[in-house]
Hints:
Order of helices and strands: EEHEHHEEHHH
Oligomer: single chain
Strand content: 15-25%
Number of domains: 2
Largest sheet: 5 strands, mixed
Amino acid sequence: MKxxxxxxxxxxxxxxxxxxxxxxxxxxxxxxxxxxxxTCPKVEVIQIxxxxxxxxxxxxxxxxxxxxxxxxxxxxxxxxxxxNEYYSVSPALLDKVKELKSEGMSDEEIVNKLxxxxxxxxxxxxxxxxxx
Length: 132
């Protein structure tokens, strides 16, 4: 699984329309989020750092909810945008999710276990679990 990292509002218009998971590494305005949803109609998750999450307006939250797009807090730790525009979720982590799910663990138990081990936050882990 890949997360598209967007570090400036100027990049939004150049995004692939098929992007599903996007991390905004800048403080987005309402206009930026509307542009993003318009440019990428298949987007399912928008992730922003927790410090920026508090500045998102209620109207944008409602808009995203109506569009069935999850707005989650989080970071892409250790990612270098100058090397690759995508942050890749480790295949080992995805395999671990499948393994724990096959052992009969609940989603909550899996998230609690992997949150301590991995670099992803709870919300992103729940999203990954919903896709498996």
